[in-house]
Amino acid sequence: MATTDELAMARLFLERMGISLEELSYTDPRPTAPTIAEFVPTVSGAVPAGTRRTYTPYWHKLVHVWGAVRIDEINATDINWFIGHARTTAVVRRSSRGGHSAALHAYRALRCLYRYAIWNRVLDPRDDPTELVTKPKTVRSTRHAIDNGLLSDIVDVASTTGNDPALDAIIIRLHLETAARRAGGLGIRPRDLDPQRSLIRLREKGDITRWQPVSPTLMTNLLHLTQTRGHRDDDTPILRNRKGKPITARRYDHLWERIGEHIDTVRTLGITTHWLRHTTLTWVERNFGYAVARAYAGHAASSTRTGVTTTYVRAGISEVAEALAALTGDPHPLAPKPL
């Protein structure tokens, strides 16, 4: 503790500096934190489109529950309650696993929200309640490659039933050939087609854009859709129904529901489009190796998981085209010519 003489010297020093004790103790108060309803639109407008699409349902739930609550009024107990709420209110789908994915996405959506609050200086990092919450465990996926017999049945049902079997057959073939995620198929536009090199441009998870080889047969079918289903310009989606209206994710859901009505295994396992991705990438890995499978999937190399060697063993587009040609039996213009 300072002595009387030391305090007197300090006061004298402050007087000579022209600083009062009131000025010394004053701190600029932090602006009032926004409410959840006020801040969610700010974050939604700042994140990439893929992140927005994933987290928006959980932000909507958050606004519904705590829209009028300031973000600095929510504590770790509240966060845990909301994660449980997201789990119990998750939409039950054929591929549902007890709401585990919903809980994980709810946690990540909140983490994203509070990171932006800190970056925008409306919340002190020490007051972030998500730092005190344990991340929900990731449940191992039950998806696996589909065997040839079942796959043949799926293709047959898709191409012979429903109100637009021609479109559904193209959807199945598109995802089998490219191993694209559902969003990748929905986002294809006429300007994304390169008929000369038989490539399509995919926009997928993490806003990653890549050119993917497709068979000349599939390219012909995609061009036919473009020419016959009312495309107004190069930026309109290619996958359209007979009335010329762009399809949505609901078309995919209905497609697998219909296939499940004809094939018990599809209904029981909850098979979806993503299973086609597993099927194709498994085949490519078994026949052409890990590097080609990674390139085929559009995955970036990760030295943290598999070592720095992967930096030097990346596969090129010609190798992906070669794997595709072997998969489809349809020669590809970019595939290496046999010696």
Automatic annotation (TrEMBL):
Name this polypeptide is given: Site-specific recombinase XerD
Any one Pfam family match given in the protein's UniProt record, by short name: Phage_integrase
GO molecular function: DNA binding
InterPro entries found in the cross-reference section: DNA_brk_join_enz, Integrase-like_cat_sf, Integrase_catalytic, Tyrosine_recombinase_XerCD
Tree of life domain: Bacteria
Oxidoreductase found in the keyword field: no
Positions of the Tyr recombinase domain: 134-325
Family membership noted in the UniProt record: Belongs to the 'phage' integrase family.
Biological process terms in GO annotation: DNA integration; DNA recombination
UniProtKB keywords: DNA recombination, DNA-binding
